[in-house]
Design brief:
This protein is of the alpha+beta class. It is built from seven helices and five strands, in the order ααββααααβββα. It has a five-stranded antiparallel β-sheet with strand order 2-1-5-4-3, sandwiched between helices. The longest helix has 38 residues.
Length: 197
């Protein structure tokens, strides 16, 4: 009641402080907002720390977070080392420029873009690509993209790449050995027929 409050103001001693209910509520709300802000900041820091731990330590493959327009939003340390680049050189640049040294997105049946497929279908996509490392050697990658959804709309994707160069090279060696074994069997058969017509 403002009449009671004004009466208290007139009768109180000069060294006694008095504030109205509205002022007290305002301070209470400011205090509450400040506490909520601190709590949100702390939760955000914890979430960021957990995110950094997941992409840099728990996931052993190369990870990029890519926006719908092919711009790299984030990248893990493992991939930066393989590319021989710093985070500042990569963030904000198109993924095809960084991983393929191209000036346009991947396309075609032999080199499909998994980001485009994920954006189109709003579902995970998987493909195999040939990238180049910092020394321009070919590296075979199995690439999977997973949609990032915000407000029921795909805004980008998380791309997880696994180096399968060793597996591919092993398959090539095995195929070469099979060819040589087939040639050996054919030669032995021909020699046998020549010796024993």
């Amino acid at each position: 009641n403002m009449e009671i409050y004004n009466d208290i103001l007139h009768k109180k001693a000069s060294d006694v402080r008095a504030i109205s209910t509205r002022t007290a509520q305002l301070f209470w709300e400011i205090s509450r907002v400040s506490t909520l802000q601190k709590k949100c900041d702390q939760e955000l820091q914890e979430t960021r720390a957990m995110y950094q731990t997941v992409i840099n330590e728990l996931i052993q493959e190369d990870v990029m977070v890519i926006a719908y327009d092919h711009r790299i939003i984030d990248i893990n340390e493992s991939m930066l080392k393989k590319l021989g680049r710093s985070r500042d050189e990569v963030i904000g640049r198109p993924c095809y420029e960084i991983t393929h040294h191209r000036d346009m997105p991947c396309s075609g049946d032999n080199h499909p873009c998994p980001l485009i497929e994920t954006m189109r279908t709003e579902k995970p996509s998987q493909t195999t690509h040939i990238h180049q490392d910092k020394d321009h050697r070919e590296i075979y990658y199995s690439i999977s993209t997973y949609p990032l959804i915000e407000n029921d709309e795909v805004i980008g994707a998380i791309e997880i790449s696994r180096d399968i160069t060793r597996d591919i090279n092993m398959q090539k060696v095995m195929m070469q050995q099979e060819k040589l074994a087939s040639i050996g069997r054919l030669s032995a058969g021909v020699a046998h027929e020549i010796n024993n017509p």
